[in-house]
Give the backbone structure.
Amino acid sequence: MEISMSNLPLSNILQRKVRSLISILAVALGISLLLILIGMTKGTVNDVARRLENVGADILVQRSDSSVFLGLKSGVLPMKLQEKIEAIPGVKAVAPVMTWTASLDGSIQVVYGIQPETFNQVGNHLELLEGRLLKGEKEIILDNRLAEARHLDVGASLDLWGTTYTVVGISKAGMGARIFMPLETLQKSLDEEGRVSLFFVRCESLDLVKSVAGEIERQIKGLKAYVLETFVDTMMRNLVGLNEFLMGTTSATLFISFLVILLAMYTTILERTREIGILKAMGASKGFIIGSIILESILLCLAGVIVGYGLTFILKKLIQTFYPLLNIEITWYWILISGLVGILGGLLGSFYPAFRAAKQDPILALRYE
Amino acid sequence: MSKKTILKAIDVKVDYQIGKVTVPALRGVNLEVQEGEFVAIMGPSGCGKSTLLHVLGGLLHPTSGQVILDEQDLCRVRDAELTKIRREKIGFVFQRFNLLPTLTAFGNIEMALKINGVRNGASRSDILNMLQLVGLKNKASHKPAELSIGEQQRVAIARALINKPSLLLADEPTGNLDSASSEEILKLFLDLNKRLNQTILMITHDKEVAAHSHRIITMRDGQIVQK
């Protein structure tokens, strides 16, 4: 004989399907919003940082007030600083780079103007999957993700800032920029001859990296030398507004979850006034009633969190199908945080309805129609 | 051997405050119920029957007087203690059954056990026995909406009795039932009273219903006029 047990919170959730479904979906949307926004932010920031790390240089030198998001400022350093940096003991090679951005189908891509020979001396060689290195003036190299997304192959043409460039090579994605062109070409097109955005530096040995970075900052005022090995951490710590953004998004999710459950449980206890009166007449303690309502809220939130996780991965797939160059990084840490935030919001939202229910006069509640 | 007095009300008064006017609902009620008695309280609407039931059941504190159940004065205990007494010593049966609509017949009875701190397992056979006692063992998995009104009231009685209360308080238990169902419920009360020695205090305004009890108490204007 099948007998459903007296699990009041669960039976209430199953009985009031529409209310439960709406509450679950609202919490799920909050969770998805949090995970996707943070995933996109982290994905973009990490992508920038990893690309810089993957250049393989030991040190990145910028003006101290430059943004780590390359391309936001272009020719801010005189190119002649290359010689000064090269003269510092322990420096093996220096590669000047001009950075800029190009808008392709609405997405912004970073462009590096490089000298192929110096660029290859400071770190990992630009790994070409097809074609050759830059030689001529109007030539570019694309990384394979951009080439695939734009269906471009070696020999194809691409318009940037009103000029047509020929694709001469396809590089492996994940190193530096998605588009490389000769340094002089980019300098000319930006009218910034003799100026660069940054320098990549290679040291004689790994032991010297920290001291060389310190020496660069000491000898040439106004420069900031980042040790690239620890660049991701440094970038995450120092990125202005990132932590505030994460806090804001997390708080918004907490608030959504709080409001949804507050409203759902408040209307529920109004609707169930008589039932609460019955429980009280049966001798249910305040703790029993509070516990029952809080448990129902937690179950709703838990279902919302699980649906939210599913929704997030569907959204991620969809976004990456339509925007293949967008990086969305969803980490276990944020999966855990978003789940906790969803449940905590619901828990807080259930307190007022739960305590209100526990305070109800059983006689008035039993008279309630 | 004389029977034990299980319930005693001494000069119980209840006043309701409506705006600035004080309306007396009970005007000094004195009452004794012996263990194993089946007592009916009769009276016209508004005479204070339900108020008296709420006071005797620990749902309402009287303005003055004493209510002693199993040698414990309900007027001198805190709310939490009163709640405990309610779940351990008093069973309620209401006119409108008051079953929890989302739970099955089994679940409704089990809820009374859970409230009383009895966990799953050992209670299962007790619940099925209780359902058998009220003739509904085959409807254990039915929800209230799937039961007839007579069956719903029998589930409510089973729920009220599962914790073996000292006192069963029934507020117009046949008020919403047709005559056949009323007869069934009254027979069940008599059976429970006889077989389990269950003390029952029943409120009704129906003379025929009251006639099934051992003793009829009549109330008028907040007072007992005939014991």
Remarks:
- The two ends of chain B are 22 Å apart (CA to CA).
- The domain at 5-105+163-226 of chain B is CATH 3.40.50.300 (Rossmann fold).
- Helices of chain B lie at 49-56, 79-89, 105-115, 122-133, 149-161, 179-195, 207-210.
- DSSP finds seven helices and ten strands in chain B.
